[in-house]
Amino acid sequence: MLCCIWHTVFKIPEDVIQTHRYIERLPRFHEFMKAKQSGSINGNAGYKTSLVYLQQFVTANHGDLNIDTIFDSGIVDVYKFLANFVTFLQTKKLAKSSVKQYLNDVKSYLQYHDIDIVPHKFKKRVILPKTPQEDAQPIDANDIRTILNQCHNRRLKTYLLVLASSGVRPIEACAIRVCDINFVSSPVRLHIRAEFTKTKKSRDIFISDETAQWLEEWIEYRFGITLQTLKTKKIDARISRNLIFQVYDIDICSTTPKSIYMKLIQHFHKVLTDINFDRRKDDMPQNRTISFHSFRRFAKTTISIQAGSDFSEWILGHKKSSYYTVKPETKADIYSTKCMKYLTFLEFSTIEATGRSMEAKIKELEKVNQLMGQKHEEEMKAVDQKINRMMELIKYNPMLAQAKRSALERLANTK
Question: What does the mean pLDDT of the chain come to?
């Protein structure tokens, strides 16, 4: 299924396919890929792309050699070789960040096979293109609401709500199974499996009540399971291991989070085009300024504002301070009371309640400011009266102009 989707979206050149097949027959390549695969389901996928580029470079510049034999003779200068490889990658019109990533992967491959690369020599002789630092385009709750209202695909809308209310990575959301959702807890919890996280650590996170309701309706529509059944955990074992965003009744092993992701992103791009949100990045025209990751950034920003940076780092699965320790029930309470209402987009009762609360706070502040203004005005009026009284006394008796101010003020206060 993944291959079909991939070929539908991208037309892979025949020479690239042949290069893939060629390097798959190389023993050192197999050894390296096996080592990188340990501990991660997709851990070696990026390395293979990098090594395909490396083989293309070797074929173009070193005749019949390949990535396994290029350094066997010992006559190739590794630093000059890598510098030329960078130039080769730049001719492929890749993003600067991709060039850097592919180079690091190739360095890892060479070092794995005992080819020494001295850091300070590498830095001086291999010049990398500088990656421009550009702030990501922010989105707010109104932007998300616009996207959701334009989205008429039930699966995609539910998926976007999960991203926006929990801050999970896109592939982590695609990897959620029916059994990973705890509808009994309040707020509802999602279990993120370790093998699909960037840090390879599992974690439990929260979603809003609105998202939980959409998830419940999607699961009932897709699998025919009611909320009561979900709460009692009386679910067929095979169904419970199904990915919640898969749509076809096929073998579990045939559907992967990556295949689900590829299909969802096609629908997402169509929605962005419909609402004119599909502007491209200046430095990477193949990428849009709004992506699935924009929802993660929104969640991080919102949770940081409402509950602090430490809590938001925990929610996102980032490395947190070892001193930040909070009980699970306290974390649930923080999310429910401080964050959930700002991560709700389609339940207008919640949105209106939040708006009324803000309006009440504004009116209260206006009232306090008005009272303070009146008090200040009264104080200034009293000061003016005191000064006028002292001026009258001095006019009546000029000798009082030589008196101390404190004595003059006491005399002015005397009726």
Answer: 83
